[in-house]
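Purpose: get a first structural picture of the assembly so the mutagenesis plan has something to point at.
Setup: three entries, given in the order below. No constraints added.
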Amino acid sequence: MHTLRSLYHLTLSTCLEGIRHKALWAIVCLAMLLTLGNLAVTLLFTWDLGKVSIEFGLSAVAFTGLLVVFFLGMKMLADDLERSRIYLLLSRPISIWQYLLGKFLGLALILLTATVILGVSAAVSMQYVLWSYPAFVPPHFSWLTYVMALFSQWLGLVMVLAVSVFCFSFASQPFVALLLTACTYLAGQNMELLRRVVLENAYAGVLSGRESLVIGLSWIFPNLSLFDKKYAAAYGLAFSGQELLLLTGYALSYSLLLLWLAAFLFKRKELA
Amino acid sequence: MSVLLEGVSKHLGARGKKKQVLHDLSLVVERGEVFGFLGPNGAGKSTTIKLLLNFIRPDSGRITVLGRRVGAEEFRDRIGYLPEFPFFYDHLTARETLLLSGRLSGVSEPTLGERIPLLLERMNLAEAANQRVKGFSKGMKQRLGVANALVHDPEVLIFDEPMSGMDPLGRHLIKTIMMELRGLGKTIFFSSHILSDIEALCDRIGVIHKGRLLYAGGLQEFLQGTHDLEARFVAAINEADHAHAA
Amino acid sequence: MSIRRVVTSGLVGLVLVGLYVASYSGLQHHRRSLPDAGESSSGIWNLSPVIIAAIAGEFKGLMADYLTLEAGARLGAKVVRTPDGKYREVKRRIDWPTIHRLYVASQYLDPSFEQTYTVAQGWLPWEGGMVREMQAILRTAAQGRPWDWKPTHLQGFNTYYFLRQPGAAGKLFLEAARIPNAPSFLPILGARLAQKGGETAAAIVLMRSMLADKTPDDPDYDDLSDRLQALQGVQQIEEASRKFQAVFARMAQSIDELLTSGMLATAPANPYKVAYCMDKAGIVYFDQPDCQK
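Result (structure tokens, whole complex):
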């Protein structure tokens, strides 16, 4: 019971610390401006205005989410170590895994808050475009698909967050952790592309014949492209609740596995 | 005994560039006593404290706090720690910081509801209770650190340079509180290189230099009849340096 | 702060501003004096589509939008500023291979984007002479937009107009006609072209499959039925003509000759209430009794 209580309070305090951070609100304001800029961008096109608007809105949410992970989340983790704030917590009867999980959950909540705010902002600008140009509403457009795409987006960002916590658990410098997380993000976004290229044998180059290596890598790196549902939302192509459940399961299991490894590595870290 | 270190050695540094910072350190702190740990800068005082708190692990030796083996059993609910430079979450208020610490230590909400206002009052932080820590001065942060260490009413207090950066009023406040805690039977282990504080507060002291314990025992015995702790301390350090050079 | 410090500080500031203004306006003047370098043909679109997709990451849609806009910006007339501040339209040489690469790259990232194929269709086959390349773009668009009849329809148009293959064009129109919400003229047009191009059998099969999805209550059911019946009549006559040629080693001169020779038992019924006509080349008409074109 005490374990859960401690986890709850750690999560809440992390969330509170992050939400009160000026950097978060600067990022959110920038992104809200971007989503309003959606209206200007859409006017540059003549066809498929609905798709342009929806994709731009979701891209703004994705971009902002990445900013939050890299510039707020990682900063908060780095500050804990570099400014010795971690002593405040680890001098209490909490375990390393509670600390890491509490931080992770708190940051995930911050991401969720930012995603919801930006998702609503993007939806407002999208609704205006769809209302102004009804001929260009994608034939099967659905707000449900949009919300599911937004949720998938958040799940993908949560995975990147888990990677950042994992990298922090062993990297000697916060900048190294940032670089590793960025590289993992880029690899994760292109994992599906790489798999397709090697398995279909087009442009495989040096990877020709190394399918097992690529398949192995696709199990190690997070397959973030699976969470990119902008295309589906933009063209009103529904994806099933079953797929969403599977994505949720994949994101949660991968993230928890990384956190478990992170706790193992962090315990070996010397907080000198 | 409250704190026991037996044959503790520690290397620190990157692989290939490790430096031994503690050599076979052994000392005991009895229950209810105020133990001053003094030494020059870089002597190993903070390292010893971090070993006590399991922030780092000894290469060899054994450490127990209140009979519990550090690193193997939980003891942190019964100790209060004040780091040399207390850092807090900038965007939490003083009250929220103490609430967090108290909750993590398993203190009940009603107890925290009574205790936190008293602590803040005692540390002259009552007016800043709902102010974010980001706007605190160095002295306010230090005082908040003391309150943070006391919020769960621990038996053992480990203070790393508690008077560091404090103005005379702040130093007086901390010293008064430490004497009150001593009166309550708390065990206090604190490191300092301010000798007047050591003289005023300690029952027993430990003197460390370059990772080696030069002396652990009564303050009066260390003074050897003199009243000049500074001179005695400097002499002890010089003797150790000459012995090492020889 | 003393007056002297304020004045010194102000003078330093003025000098710095002056330096900045002088250097930047000098640079702008220098750039204006250079000949127009024209549009660069180098850009991200020259990379392999796979590499572009890798660079775009999860922002493939945005990158596709940008590439399509970039292509659009390189088309049409160019407007330049004259020294007296007015605007003048100038003709520009369009780099068609680059335009094509831009559209191909855009489609690789987002094969479903309507603007890509629509604008490409307006330029590539007409001005750029890139008909086959445009057909490939339309095929990709058709696969990426299974709900949209227009890419297949445009393929049919290009096949008829540029490639002069009415039979193949007709088949494409009939394929487009099967997509939901396709206009009702498509199957009729498709059937006509397919039959003209010697693809009567294929047209009949496609029209039968379309009718199978409809009921007699559907508004275009009767039109499709009539066209199918007409095509079936044409097919009977065409088969009889082939048999006549095999036996008599020459083309029959008319449908009457087919009837008298016994190759055609009876003249098939024409739902359009006019007689079928067959010209000397063996082409059968169901709507032109005198074989007039």
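The first helix of chain B runs from residue 45 to 52.
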